[in-house]
Amino acid sequence: MRRWTTERQPARTVRWGIQALVTGTVVGLTACSGGGAESRNAEVPSAPPPAAVTVEPEAHGGKKAATVDVYANDRPGMLSPVVQGFPSLVYVPNSDSGTVSVIDPKTYQVIRRFKVGARPQHVVPSWDLKTLWVNNNEGNTLTPIDPATGRPGRPIPVEDPYNLYFTPDGATALVMAERLNRLDFRDPATFKLRESLDMPCRGINHADFTLDGSTFLASCEFSGHLVVVDLARRKVGQVVNLPGHHNMPQDVKLSPDGGTFYVADMAQGGVWRVDSGSFKVEGFVRTGAGAHGLYVSRDSKVLYVSNRGAGSVSVVSFAKRRPIATWRIPGGGSPDMGGVSADGRRLWLTGRYNSVVYVFDTGDGHLVRKIPVDAGPHGLAVYPQPGLHSLGHTGVFR
């Protein structure tokens, strides 16, 4: 059978262990740092998980240490009781058509299509996993979808919802108001506005959280910056300038060991490594033109990077901190946003400029299907997925 890895990965033991908890509170774990490599922090999600996985972290300072895996609750089969009765479906927001296409992942057929607000950008699972929210950016609404039926409900007015996240404790919804250059703090159920934070940059759109959940690292596409948001104080603590003369940072993803943020840069054609403690830019991993979406494999070993301009997906090893394979779309394409299937065997990505959805086999990297959808497909959600809670975007689970 054809395999996608271009080099043999060393065998290593994955050990199941009981995660350290103190009466449901957050526990921090720290590992050493040195020699210019990433510092190590670790987090336990706000709701106690049943178990954690011990993994080999990135090498640093000539030493290796075990740490709690951020994505320990995202393994195949680890579906929350909340979602176990939901049908497995793929929800595709078509930005240029103002529609959502619903795909059956077993047959690869579009089984439903419905209208939503103007310019839907992403389909975002709620923190409690019970609702999917279509972000109608120009329509200034959020359309709820009931994942038990796959059907939409009545839209809620929300200004400029380009993207949507939830704090790890589930207490606050974070709306990325991209064109308004604002981060809006809202009620996670009603979406009533609590507070707005003006950004010192342009085009806030994607983000992820530090392990302890206290800090939000967000990308600003149009000005080429990253912003560090102190969530407790609701203040911008730092602006990170990326190296180079022209940057377009996109998706942000925390490494499994919690020590590094990976930030896709569409203009530079790769991903930046940013230390999660100091927010210092530590290095760059070249992947391909238009590096855009970032997705962690179900075993936490690799990061899938969609290269929208190159028409490819790069497979970046967390341990090696470099690509170990490239999957190319025959004839080219525009792979954008998406997610990994619940069993980890498929990577689903929209073809932003080709009106299709791509399905890759994560075992050998070949393109399984191209599924026609409406115009401008963007941030699709594969649902349900393993995890205790959703932190937003197209499915960032802890």
From TrEMBL:
Residues 88-380 form the YNCE-like beta-propeller domain. Residues 36-60 are annotated as: Disordered. Coiled coil: none annotated. Keywords: Signal. The keyword ATP-binding does not apply. Pfam families: YNCE. It comes from the Bacteria. InterPro entries: Host-pathogen_enzymatic-act (IPR051200), N2O_reductase_N (IPR011045), WD40/YVTN_repeat-like_dom_sf (IPR015943), YNCE-like_beta-prop (IPR048433), YVTN_b-propeller_repeat (IPR011964). PANTHER family: DIHYDRO-HEME D1 DEHYDROGENASE, PROTEIN NIRF. This is YNCE-like beta-propeller domain-containing protein. It comes from Sphaerisporangium flaviroseum.
